[in-house]
Amino acid sequence: MTTEAPLLRLENISRSFGAIQALRDISFDIGRGEVVALLGDNGAGKSTLVKMISGGLEPSSGRIIYDGAERHFTSPADGKAAGIETVYQDLSLCTNVDVVANFFMGREIVKKYLGIPVLQEKAMEAVVAKALADAGTKIPSLRTNVEHLSGGQRQAIELNRFVHWGGKLVLLDEPFAALGVEQTRRGLDLIRRIADQGIGVIFITHIMSQAFQVADRMVVIRQGKVAGDVRREDTTADEIVQLITGEALGGRARNADRENGQAQPAA
Amino acid sequence: MVSSNRRAVIEFVLDHLVWFILIAVLTVFSLTIPNYFQIGIFANIVEQSTFVGTLAIGLSLLIIAGYMDLSIESVMALAAMVVGILFAKSGVGLGFGFTPAWLVVPISLAIALSVGAAVGASNAFFVVRLKMNSFIVTLAAYIWGRGLVVALSGGRSAQELPGELRFLAVERFLQIPLMAWIAILATLVFAFILNRTPFGRHLLMIGGNPTAAYRAGIKVDRLTATTFVLAGAIAGLAGWLLAIRTSGATANLGVGMLFQTFAAVVIGGVSLKGGVGSLPGVYAGVLLLASIQTAINLMGMPAHFTQLIQGGMVLVAVLLDTMKLSIRKRLA
Q1: Mean pLDDT of B121-130
Q2: A92 and B275: CB-CB below 8 Å?
């Protein structure tokens, strides 16, 4: 496929909590501009994996290679500084201030008068308007408080903010759980557009149709292991369901396992 | 769905509700109470608003950031007493003087601000470093602060501040004493800080969602601590002004102002949930309370009616806060 090094490569990642082994020998890659759907039943280990990628948890063993170098993130702040972030629907916005303020949270444009930093609202508004227009996101007024916006619009603000500030890999944990049909469709469009800007997207979902609409690849986790790593055009919903539940394990899954093994000669 | 124009109008009214109420109340009083409609009366309302108006700045900043400061009244009294003891000429006053004599103005101001900032820093230490509840920490400071005032003065009073200080209470500009202008100026300065600087913007964000602010790299703890120190220093400023006005200090100086301030802040539109409020609105709340008090005085009603009415107003204000929230929710 691509000749350049992947954006993120997980090599034999394992993680245990006491006697419980949550993840075993997880290996997969994600390229720039690639959308990977992470699928799996409840308790399969998806959330643990996402936490590890974003820096919230350290693996017990295995290597994380990101942007060409091995990384040891010890906190989400480390991950964030490197351009990896988990985008939640609400947690990272201040709903009591407007869209512009949220976009620039902690990075406001200021001009100093007599040493006093003064917010440059017009300049900031122009930047936000451009960033949202480039991403094809429509928000009625950038000066409305975020509390008046819909869940989908909030998500769009978060994602666009992430892209604007140099994000490279975004993790979305059940991004559309609380959204309606139309909002979900727009959200999926947005994911596609973000990936088209060269950003890697990993999104966790339960909903097969969403994965098939937007993902380039699907990685299925079952009982802490990669049960399948398949390209969208090479698979079917039935096969993915089988991979998730582990019933009637098909030949494709075994192939995927083997390919994974070949990907890391060190293993 | 509400049209965006109508929504903008409703939002504007909700955001500036206290100003509308103030205008309505002043109109009603002017029409119904003899002698209310006079420049002198209005100037007096502004003058009365000096101390509560100043205290309200610091309290508003902290409530907007999602915290509470009950210590301001005692901090104000403490700063006033320290200034009284050092510079007043009789009572417990030591009567320190300087050459040239006007030096007493900046020096006493610096001392008052430092006393306030010190108590604010102690509050900040307990709340930010030790993660204690700000309500309890500042309640304790409210109690020990007043205790310290009584202990320092031995329950006696300090009288006769030098004329250089009294100047600020005596001299008037547009019929309003200079010290009232100081309170107005402080309100404007902090309104600017709240609305136009990153510091103020970040305070609002911390009040709205501290987790998000933290995740965005805002130094939440440092900002919170700074705000406690600021609120203390502003209370120190109020104490300095109050000492100048009363030309000294008594052990029970300013008792009851905490609740007036609290009422004004809530009436002024600062949400107790944090993250919402503007300082001009709070000043309007202070003016509203003073207008009502003046009306009560003019009608010759006993002073305790003021307390009854103020208590009622606090309830109404909190009720309004809740109603505004539900109206906004319906708009969204």
Answers
A1: 94
A2: no
Contact, B54 vs B118, CB < 8 A? no
Q: Which of the four CATH numbers 1.20.910, 2.60.40, 1.10.3470, 2.40.10 does domain B4-331 have? A: 1.10.3470
Residues of B with CB under 8 A from a CB of A: 4, 196-199, 201-202, 204-205, 207-209, 211-213, 215-218, 275-276, 328, 331-332
Which residue type sits at A106? G
* Residue A32 dihedral angles phi and psi, to the nearest 5°: -65, 135
Range of the domain at A117: 94-166
**Domain co-membership, A265 together with A183:** yes
> pLDDT at residue A253 above 60?
no
**Residues of chain A contacting residue B208, judged by C-beta atoms under 8 Å apart:** 94-97
Which amino acid makes up residue B56?
A
Token pair, residue B88, equals: 């007043």
Residue ending a domain, among A166, A200, A218, is A166
Q: Is the pLDDT of residue B101 over 70?
A: yes
Tell me what the mean pLDDT of segment B271-297 comes to: 90
Task: Name the residue among B279, B277, B273, B281 with its Cα closest to residue B66.
Answer: B273
Structural domain includes residue A89: no
Residues of A in contact with B209 (CB under 8 A): 91, 93-96
Q: Tokens standing for A79?
A: 């991950």
CB B195 within 8 A of CB B203: no
Alpha-carbon gap, residue B175 to B41, rounded angstroms: 10
Provide mean pLDDT across the span A244-251.
65
As a whole number, the mean pLDDT across chain B is 89
Please indicate whether, in this complex, the C-beta atoms of B4 and A141 are within 8 angstroms of each other.
yes
